[in-house]
Amino acid sequence: MREIRPLTLPSDPPSSVGSSDPPKRGRGGTLTYKEAGVDITANTRWVSAIKAAMHSTYGPRVFQDRHGGFAGLFRLDYEEPILRRNYKRPVLVGCTDGVGTKVLLAIEMNRLDTIGIDLVAMNVNDLITCGAEPLFFLDYLAVHKLDPDHLLQVIEGIAAGCREAGCALLGGETAEMPDLYRKGDLDLAGFAVGVLEYRRAIDGSRVEPGDVVIALPSSGVHSNGYTLVRKLIARAGCKLDRFHDELGETLGEAVLRPTRIYVKAVQAVLQHYRVKRVVTGMAHITGGGLTENIARAIPANCDVVLSRSAWRPPPIFEFLRRLGTTKREMYKVFNMGIGYIFIVRPFYADTVMRVLGRAGEQPLIAGRIQRGSQRVRIV
After folding, report:
1. Where do runs of H (alpha helix) occur along 185-314?
2. What gap in Å lies between CA 70 and CA 110, rounded to an integer?
3. Is-above-0.85 flag for pTM?
4. What domains, with CATH codes, occur in the chain?
């Protein structure tokens, strides 16, 4: 369950080891934890305030309000028909990720409702690339000072992301550290756990020349490359609250657009083919852009050849390029409009496209696999 762990750093170095002198009381009399910068009573109220958001993500496999709140409990009950049918040799899958310096733009705009969704997306989108079903999610928030009104936006965003991904927000920790973080600072990390059937794990080893690359669109920059994004914006003197016709929104709205969650799309395809293994590889396009991430999903004797004319990147990417970087750098850093890819056997490509369309996606055939040396070429 969620735990509050207030931490402070000592302002003076520790006394010498082995000293026989008793500790001296500082000036000003006794000192409380609240006076030192951490309000335990406020932390307790905070935990109560976020319970509704957490409970909104729970399903029947979550043990609610058990074990004294020190840990979250989640059932892996093989008597349930769904588990008995799908998982004869279940394998647990785990991953962790954060949102990076996108948080700084959210703080600057005083809008924290989207970064919680980003946090869930960055984790579950990685998790599902091997064919896993997300089970539950944990978060870690670190702040200078607990501000329930602002932080509740983050938790509600995390809960919204969990509901979309079909996983439970099982717990987390909020660390109040006034000596480590500056006023207004916020950092966050997430942890996702899922399950897959051993014999149906997807690791890219079955990818072969002739396989088709099917891409799902991104919503924009997602949550990677924001150190470059922020520096380009700052150097050009752009205002986040200024509306741009080419973007159809303010610059701030464009760069804070939350990362898409692809769980339902992946599950639609994998559930359609419960026996046939038509998906040979998948990749979540995150840090390293198109060129690095897709290469991680193919064997050493294959190349991915993408057709640049197959899709049109959202306007935010051309906007950022004009602020002072190159197309080559853009493809190395950003998703360029493609957030997730499937690699499938060519005979089944049309059916996979239809299944994705019925799942609400707008898939496109972005390229093919050729014999090569584990490179991604965009032609």
Report:
1. 226-236, 251-256, 263-272, 289-293
2. 32
3. yes
4. 37-200 (3.30.1330.10), 212-378 (3.90.650.10)
